[in-house]
Design a protein that fits this description.
The structure is a homotetramer. The first copy, chain A, is an all-alpha fold. The first copy, chain A, is built from 10 helices and no strands. Chain A is elongated and about 55 Å long. The interface between A and B is large, with 44 and 44 residues. Chain D binds a DNA duplex through helix 2 and helix 3.
Chain lengths: 187, 187, 187, 187
Amino acid sequence: MKDKREQILETSLKLFVERGFHNTPTSLIAKEAGVATGTLFHYFKTKEELINSLYLEIKDDMIAVLVNKIDTHDTIKAKLKQVFMNSVFWAFNKPFQQLFFMQYSHSPYIDQITKDQGMQRFSGILEIIEDGKKTEILKNISTALLFEMAQGFINGTIKYFRENQQKLKDQTELENAFSAFWDGIKG
Amino acid sequence: MKDKREQILETSLKLFVERGFHNTPTSLIAKEAGVATGTLFHYFKTKEELINSLYLEIKDDMIAVLVNKIDTHDTIKAKLKQVFMNSVFWAFNKPFQQLFFMQYSHSPYIDQITKDQGMQRFSGILEIIEDGKKTEILKNISTALLFEMAQGFINGTIKYFRENQQKLKDQTELENAFSAFWDGIKG
Amino acid sequence: MKDKREQILETSLKLFVERGFHNTPTSLIAKEAGVATGTLFHYFKTKEELINSLYLEIKDDMIAVLVNKIDTHDTIKAKLKQVFMNSVFWAFNKPFQQLFFMQYSHSPYIDQITKDQGMQRFSGILEIIEDGKKTEILKNISTALLFEMAQGFINGTIKYFRENQQKLKDQTELENAFSAFWDGIKG
Amino acid sequence: MKDKREQILETSLKLFVERGFHNTPTSLIAKEAGVATGTLFHYFKTKEELINSLYLEIKDDMIAVLVNKIDTHDTIKAKLKQVFMNSVFWAFNKPFQQLFFMQYSHSPYIDQITKDQGMQRFSGILEIIEDGKKTEILKNISTALLFEMAQGFINGTIKYFRENQQKLKDQTELENAFSAFWDGIKG
DNA sequence: TATGAATGAGCTTTCATTCAT
DNA sequence: AATGAATGAAAGCTCATTCAT
């Protein structure tokens, strides 16, 4: 049997995505999680604290997956391809988590402190981009811009594959997507 | 003096973006719009109908701007550059509208019918992409994927410039962003 | 084309019976009556005045029917039989009106003054009862009690026939009902 | 201190009778019952559920009183006299409950299912009537009609005594009323 | 830790009524 | 006489949060 805290996080993720934050009563979360309403507030002081905790836990999980199987000795291109593929892989393995970010990254429910903490975790990926620029493999564009373009591109790719899941069966289209991605950022 | 319906839409846009949908009482919308609470419901049967109407009106406005100054005789590249630049221009001219889409495009408050209606309005832009593919100027990737990649890329670009507004003063970085965009999708 | 005032009364009768007084918006009455909301308030200062007017108009109509075809020369029994039959006849000819009394005779929406005015109209029937007592044809019970017993009895009879309409086809059961009625009050 | 649920039922009975259903805010019920508004909705999902529950609880109480002190060995007449007297007794002991039925038995606020459930509880009394018919003590009229006539007659009697309470001091008039009742239904 | 009855502020929505036309 | 957009008080109901157990 799962830890109750864990159970609450898991349940609220699902409900926040399906129904929206304010349209998800804490009583419903408690019920679906199989705990008493009071228990939820034992683990999270407020509903706001709950969604912010959720945000950071998901961010941590995502980052861990994105940098998976990246070797220091890989080329910049290999590293970024791994990140690209890991991103798509994560989105499909953790669909609720991915939708959660789509919905709540820009929402006022997540406070700025939490967003900043989430951003810090991207440092590893930002380093890859900076390395790529130093060696002139990537375009000489500000790192932040390159990062946002890349992230937006990947989000678009994921959105497409979510709506056309059968296209993931063979790798062709995904490889094409990465080619376009790479053409865009390479120097 | 503005039309009351117009006033309600304008006010609710601002408030939904700043405070979130469920954290914005209809009473506050009415108050800020300078109308009685009953008046809001005279024009929009429910709060849900209000946000869906808002979504479509903003979508219409955006599309009109995106295809602005596009001439039939332009090259594909010129057309897509115009769309790219128009997108950034719109985002900066209509910041609330742009943030509204960021927050609510993926939210459950907008129903699927409304989202579909919104999507239909992109047909003009999809045609440009298809023309580009026919003449082998663009990559031979499915139109839907190209579209989503492009849209994601542009969203990222906008996000960057919103956080770094001074970088828009001269055109250099924006031109670089378009170059990257074009490199990504060209054949 | 009907008089608008008439139209409003007719429509509100139907709606008050089917939906209850407070669950029937004046806007709905206006709409169903085919007039503007303002028009309703032109004829009736308030919604309360509307239902009280309705009460009295229906009472008038009912009394007129109850004493119909009663001849001064008839026996007491013949007169009361006529009233009894007229009551059932009225209830079936004016079902909404009858239900209206069932629902609103005891309700606080009708003010006491109106109820008293309605009661006055029964004087003709009360006179028949008093005549019957004088000649010892009816039981020597206070007129008011005889009246209420009779009215209750008739209401019960009507309720039964409303729920068993086919039983009205031949007159047997209705005659039986009157026999019981007469046995109860005769001296 | 009373049970909160009980307190809410008791208070709403009084208020519904005095002010009407829709003219009685749930907030007022809660206030007079000494509970929070939320508590009312904790026990009754909607205001409609509240009034329907009330209807059934009162019906149960009434039936229990009506069949009180009836012995299997009593004659039909004795049994029905007991029911008649019990009815009057109940009406005077529970005046709000009696007025509640007068007002709401025919109202659209009580749904048909509830009304049917209420009717089922009369089976004991219907049996007495059927027994009476078998032994030819009562008129050979359909049971349902006899039942409705009787109920209407009793309601009228109660209405009279409510408006003329001093007449209850000695039993004479009440006995007369029962005589009339019995004359009406006896064979 | 865990419970869930109880709270009451606050929400969306309704609706009788007004009034300029 | 007739209209219907506009009003805003008030309604039913929700829900984050507390607290005695």
